[in-house]
Design a protein that fits this description.
Elements lengths: L3 H6 L7 E2 L5 H11 L3 E6 L2 E7 H9 L10 H4 L13 H11 L3 E6 L2 E7 H24 L1
Parallel strand pairs: 1-2
Antiparallel strand pairs: 2-3, 4-5
Helix pairs in contact: 5-6
Amino acid sequence: MRTVKHLLEGKSSNTWTIDPSATVFEALTMMAQKEVGALCVTENEKLVGILSERDYARKVILKGKTSRETLVGEIMTGDVITVRPEQSIDECMTLMTDKRLRHLPVVVDEKLVGIISIGDVVKDVISEQQHHIKQLEMYISA
């Protein structure tokens, strides 16, 4: 059974974070530079929220606010759903589907150790399925 730990081992070790006192414009600039769709919001190294492109679209643009004047802490999702490294990829996929999440921060002892995206999860599931298919084909042809 593949776990979150396996996913993190195959990814870059960078987990991009931003302070809640930063402006949304600064956060969007960082997301564009790092080519990510979400940033973990941390304060004194503690995860306090997550900011996604969806938060920006729904809480800034649609409400007529400006990204240069709005702070990350005003629009971030504060009640963050997290996972642990030992959780299975299947659990994460179910959680992401049921809660309509695209990103899951990975936390150990209240410390942020990484983040996985729905793309990471789907890519892993497809890879595992391809591996199983190959094994079945070899079994059948033997």
